[in-house]
Amino acid sequence: MDQQMAAVNPQARCGRPLSLDEDSRGGRVARRNVLFGLWAARRLGLPAHRHEAYAWSVYFADFEAPGDEDVIRKVARDLAEAGVAVTKRQLRHHLRELELKAYFQLSVPHPQVRVKPRRN
Length: 120
Prior knowledge:
Mean pLDDT: 80
CATH class: Mainly Alpha
Order of helices and strands: HHHHHH
Helix content: 55-70%
CATH architecture: Orthogonal Bundle
């Protein structure tokens, strides 16, 4: 019976409620890439109004080839051109940290918004 509950209820598997399942891995990777792009934009010293555009360019770089190497390559190239010293190993480490951050951001349930009825 416990195994059946674990198969149906994600909370039974990990001890806390989740709104994340395997189908949302793409969403987690997408969020991670955008977070990575925002981080890199700050490291590049880009003005704040250009951060979002750069983050999206990192997101779209992930479609060049399977895996994370295309994202790492883009950010490493851009940082090197800007004279920012960082190794690919450091970038991979930060990318893994941001994947964990993206996982937790997506797994936290959003609060329900209650609208009070208007009184006339």
